[in-house]
């Protein structure tokens, strides 16, 4: 059994353009690498989220994007680690370790979805097109995309941990995997953003804000459009099509449990001057979730 690796980050303040910045990353933040494995002995059922095909399809569609998405996050952040302070270097190392574990677990989860009868090839083909484009873009653009997507994952993670309705009735092992992922997304939610501040330390505030804001608008359009299409594709594989199914999916996202509606205020906050992910300190959710996190899932293999 591998013990969680706790990585303290209070090394020194981060310097931007020769001055100590006012980055509100908590001084006492600890990023814990929980080397957890899920579903190795028991695969999730086809409709693992309380027998609900809508919620199951939405989360399966999200998971299908994570392995390659998190690989992109790692590469985008590592591209700008040169010259980083010891504090930011420690943040990046912890971030990479957590994201590697997330990639491994979602590969296993996606494989289980395929074994349950779902065809993920359309999602994979769309991802192939997206990542071909990513390779052609300047690294700073990919980092700006990363901080937007990391904000999405962090605010959804906060909502998932804070609102038990999202995984009500879910199979225990699968729900534990999503909560584990959510805990670590909250812990490292400021790493990519701090890296962006480091990478753009010689930029004007306007230029920095403009790039991150434009990228968030583009990411939002593509994120909602593609996850909507991916979810409907998976539902169609269950024979669920038509306007009633679309209405049920829309209600799931903006009604009950309404993840997109619930995260909307935090999405808006991203565009405010002086925004930083840690201006919303939600670490209490991690402590509450971790108290329920079974050590037995920290497997050695």
Task: Report what the structure shows.
With about 300 residues, the protein is mainly α. The chain has a single domain, classed as Ribonucleotide Reductase, subunit A (Orthogonal Bundle). The chain contains 10 helices and 4 strands. It has helices at about 55-80, 85-115, 120-135, 140-160, 170-185, 190-200, 205-235, 245-255, 260-270, 285-290, and strands at about 5-10, 15, 20, 30-35. It has a two-stranded antiparallel sheet. A two-stranded antiparallel sheet has the order 2-3. Strand 2 (about 15) and strand 3 form a beta hairpin. The longest helix has about 30 residues, at about 205-235. It is globular and about 55 Å long. Residues about 10-20 have low confidence and may be disordered. Pfam families: Metal_hydrol. This is Metal-dependent hydrolase. InterPro entries: UCP07580.
State Rg. Answer: 19 Å
CATH topology: Ribonucleotide Reductase, subunit A
CATH architecture: Orthogonal Bundle
Q: Overall pLDDT, averaged?
A: 90
What is the strand arrangement across the widest sheet? Answer: 1-4
Structural class: mainly alpha
Kindly estimate the percentage of residues that lie in beta strands according to DSSP: under 5%
Pfam families: Metal_hydrol
Protein name: Metal-dependent hydrolase
InterPro entries: UCP07580 (IPR016516)
């Amino acid at each position: 059994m591998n013990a969680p690796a706790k990585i303290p980050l209070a090394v020194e303040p981060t310097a931007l353009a020769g001055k100590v910045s006012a980055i509100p990353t908590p001084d006492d933040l600890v990023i814990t690498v929980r080397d957890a494995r899920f579903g190795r002995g028991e695969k999730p059922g086809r409709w693992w989220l309380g027998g609900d095909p809508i919620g199951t399809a939405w989360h399966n569609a999200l998971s299908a994007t994570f392995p390659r998405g998190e690989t992109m996050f790692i590469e985008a952040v590592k591209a700008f680690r040169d010259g980083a302070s010891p504090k930011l270097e420690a943040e990046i190392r912890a971030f990479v370790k957590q994201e590697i574990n997330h990639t491994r677990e979602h590969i296993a989860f996606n494989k289980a979805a395929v074994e349950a009868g779902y065809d993920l090839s359309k999602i994979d083909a769309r991802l192939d097109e997206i990542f071909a484009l990513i390779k052609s873009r300047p690294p700073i653009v990919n980092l700006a995309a990363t901080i937007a997507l990391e904000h999405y994952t962090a605010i959804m993670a906060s909502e998932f941990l804070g609102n038990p309705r999202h995984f009500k009735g879910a199979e225990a092992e699968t729900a534990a995997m999503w909560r584990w992922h959510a805990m670590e997304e909250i812990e490292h939610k400021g790493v990519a953003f701090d890296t962006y501040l480091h990478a753009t330390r010689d930029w004007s505030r306007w230029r920095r804000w403009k790039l991150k804001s434009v990228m968030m608008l583009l990411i939002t359009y593509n994120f909602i459009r593609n996850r909507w299409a991916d979810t409907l594709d998976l539902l169609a594989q269950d024979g669920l099509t038509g306007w009633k199914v679309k209405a049920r999916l829309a209600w799931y996202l903006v009604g009950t449990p309404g993840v997109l509606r619930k995260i909307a205020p935090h999405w808006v906050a991203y565009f405010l001057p002086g925004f930083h992910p840690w201006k919303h300190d939600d670490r209490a959710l991690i402590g509450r979730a971790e108290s329920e996190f079974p050590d037995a899932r920290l497997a050695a293999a």
